[in-house]
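Quick sanity check, Peptidase:
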Amino acid sequence: MSRHVPVNAADHRDLRVNPAPRADLGDQVMSCLTVPIEFRRVQNEFPILFQRNPETGRLHALAMMGFEEGENLFLDGDRWTARYRPLALAIAPFRIGRSSNPDEPAQVHIDLDHPRVGDPEGVRLFDDSGLASPLLERASDMLHQLDVGLAAAGDFYDALDRYELLEPFALDVTLDDGSESRLVGYQLINEEKLQELEAGAVAELHRDGHLMPMFMALASLSNMTDLLARKNRRERDG
């Protein structure tokens, strides 16, 4: 369940949010949404794969953190072991809220039923004067980045489809202990097709800002080796 309301000092001055990375606070996930404008930061740590919504056929990108549901190999107790935390994961329990009037500005909403909310060890959203805390200001900034990224992502995915640059991806992994893991139902950018694009298509992709995120997504695939090593360590160490 979720209960989203606009954040305001009058109602939420004393409300606390725990931003710590922890399994019981919602970080125990094998993947999370990412957007092209953050691919440069994501690709340093996580493989980036693509997936289609089975109902709409629309694409989205995912930062991969594990090989099975409920597995986050970058979470070690309450310690985040990557140098970056994707926006879609870092913003919880906040989200962008909009009214039915398109002329009204977007608002920061909070899910009052989220496990991060109301923790007495958490951080207040406002100070005694009613000013936003650094935590709330950071959340607002990240929400803006994600909102801009989501708005721009559609054109990027349209370009991938227009030039038929995606191919199905599945990965069968045999771990050191002999057990197996498998990733299925994903897509990745076909590097050969990208390299074979005509000069005009490459110029168009570069002009529209799509070429760099494509290269970042390709570069991110080298992180599969690290992800597998993390999986083996987790299985070995228990």
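Posting the structure with no commentary besides this: The chain has one domain: 4-237.
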